[in-house]
Amino acid sequence: MSTKIKIDPITRIEGHLAIEAVIDDGEVKEAKSAGTLFRGFEIILKGRDPRDANRITQRICGVCPTSHATASALCLDEAFGLTDKIPDNAKLIRSLILGANFLQSHILHFYHLAALDYVDAVGAVGELSPFIPRYEGDYRVSGQANAELVNHYIKALDIRRKCQEMLSIFGGKMPHNVGIVPGGVTEKPTEDKITNFLWRLNEIRDFVDNIYIPDIISVAKAYGDYFTIGKGCQRLVAYGGFDLPDGRLFKPGVISEKLELEQFAGENITEDVKHSWYADSTSGKNPAQGQTKPQPDKKQAYSFLKSPRYKGRVCELGPLARMVSNYVQGDVKVKELVDSVLTQFDAGADVLFSVLGRHAARALEAKFVADAMADWLQALKPQEPTIVESEISENVEGAGLTEAPRGSVGHWISTKDKKIDRYQVITPTAWNASPKDDKDQPGAIEQAIIGTKVRDKDNPFELVRIVRAFDPCLACSVHLLDAGENELGVFRVV
Amino acid sequence: MATKKYPVVWLQGSGCTGCSVSVLNAVSPKIQNLLLDELVPGQQLNLIFHATIMAGQGEPVVEVLKDTEKNRKGGYILVVEGAVPTAENGIYGSIGEKDGRHLTIQQSVEDLGKNALLVIALGTCATFGGIPSARPNPTLCKGVKAIFNEKEIKTPVVNIPGCPVHPDWFVGTVSAVLFSGVDALELDDLARPKLFYGSLIHENCPRRADFDKGKFAEKLGDPGCLYKLGCKGHYTYADCPLRQWNNGLNWCVKAGSPCLGCVEPEFPDGTSPMYEKITFEELK
Fold this sequence. Notes:
The complex is a heterodimer.
Chain A: E1 2-10, E2 17-24, E3 27-35, H1 41-45, H2 53-56, H3 65-79, H4 88-114, H5 121-125, H6 143-171, E4 180-181, E5 184-185, H7 191-222, E6 236-238, E7 241-244, E8 247-250, E9 253-255, E10 261-262, E11 269-272, E12 307-310, H8 319-328, H9 332-344, H10 355-379, E13 397-404, E14 407-416, E15 419-426, H11 428-432, H12 444-449, H13 461-469, E16 476-482, E17 490-492
Parallel strand pairs in A: 1-17, 2-16
Antiparallel strand pairs in A: 1-2, 1-16, 2-3, 4-5, 6-9, 7-8, 9-10, 11-12, 13-14, 14-15
Chain B: E1 4-12, H1 18-24, H2 31-36, E2 43-50, H3 59-71, E3 77-81, E4 84-85, E5 94-98, E6 101-104, H4 105-114, E7 118-122, H5 123-128, E8 141-142, H6 144-151, E9 157-160, H7 167-180, H8 194-197, H9 201-204, H10 208-213, H11 240-243, H12 280-283
Helix pairs in contact in B: 1-7, 4-6
């Protein structure tokens, strides 16, 4: 028999999201993912000084504000004609700021958002808030190994805080750094700051190498079936990111399930709104021409997220996409890291499309970025400039495409009379948690849920583990609908 | 003697979770102390609802809200992070599902606010509306006090603005309440604790000597007072220059960025353009 289950809210993610799905014979037949908060940033930005976008868009997300600061700065650099003039020091410092936030976000995601689905905190510390209420029945690590993971949850609180402290050396403060601006950065890389940053980074790298990655491996050993759960759409997109004096750390690419590479081009992105609470007249546009007209009473709609698509196709973004993109483009370090984990599990690259594949890619990416950051610090030149002067130009356009911890992020601007005329943002979670598009193709998380076998409807671990592995950046709810009729009993998830 | 525990419900409205992330950055006490230990001798917080960190999800956590509202009247602290969207009956923001319907942020703030011992409006969105309430305020976002005034809710509200809030401002305010009671807390006319918002940025700014000498930065990255680059420190009440951010490592003006005035009710409309000089008179 079909059952409708609702989980609302899904916690331990950033923001507000809802997912609806249909269970029949123990298997998910249909799923809906819905963002339940609308703030209207693009509407608020219209008419403002373009430079203010760099500060305001960070407030989209307090977990990954630096990604928006970066995307916005790249977008304004282009609009003001500065892209080719950004000093090397500025590229390196922007990347160090962004990298520091990748580290805090990845560590926060695994230990404080995702881990409680796998680690038995109550078994280690007792029945305390915020560890209860919770799902029961599928905690597979116990005793000393479990206690150690819970200790690492606590230790990781210190380490993620230190990532933010490290960031503030060049960013001024976190959340919402002030250091990244159009034209470069405001801080100077003096020798004392470089050393201060380096020794903080060393402690964090030690944690990533000797605690975070080994913990991912031990969780993967206990939950091996999650290498086959949550496969998803199996098409990956990375815009590429971390602009350095000699190119980008992450390479742009579109990758198929057989790991074939296709060139990425921003003009192939469109956003559908058939199932989103926005006016239908705004559907199918490239973000450079995009519009945001809310219509919360629209009938077939179920989300405040639009549906971004690449050449009309559903895609997944995030650490998995980035690592695979570099992997297929011959990045030696990435290949070494990914292959070392695959060898441990005697598995082929196909297992990467899974819940555990996403967690592993994220942990390995933390190491890849952290190791690179040490090199960037060495490349800084204390006496040289970090910023070029910028002037607001009239009637110009710009695009800023980069990477956020949870996937690619893009900003698009056009100005009129030195004010913002149009500003559009596509967040990575808009891709991953998107509702169905105009062709009724389900979004990436929806596809990852569909087909999943749910063992216990009272405790649908499978579903929340799938959703959280994407590291969605909005607070969400998962609704599981009845497969057949509309009149089915609603099964409340406990 | 038994520890006195104060249940804390932490609601996230129209915001970015940045204030939660900032409170995770608390140094002494650390976040793990806030969550698990006595904050002051004999008294501790008991965080029973916080969407970003609690283990549970779905109906059981909505039950926690229902139970708190009904059975813990006058005994819990409500923390509100994020503004309250009020357009179209609050439909632009919901935090879960209750009795088969969207549980809007507005509804939860009102229901839980009514019966709380104390409400802490955390961050500029929750205090004054902040970024989501910026022109043209598409979702009609308001701060908690504005909602309480409209609905005649009498529960005391302490405002702790900031975009985001500094962790010390939150921890310090809660400590003051636990030590001395909410009535002893000295607030300014915007309901902010004077302990943290008692003096102008400009009074304690390390670039104050440059201002006095008329040495002004003409472009970002220059030494000198940042007044001509839009610094709002002459108008903004906060202790950032003394306390600094992220374990005392840095803060906006030290990093070469003008103060954005993020703790003031005029943020961001009245304090924009952010990188243009705005005189005190223009701000008023």
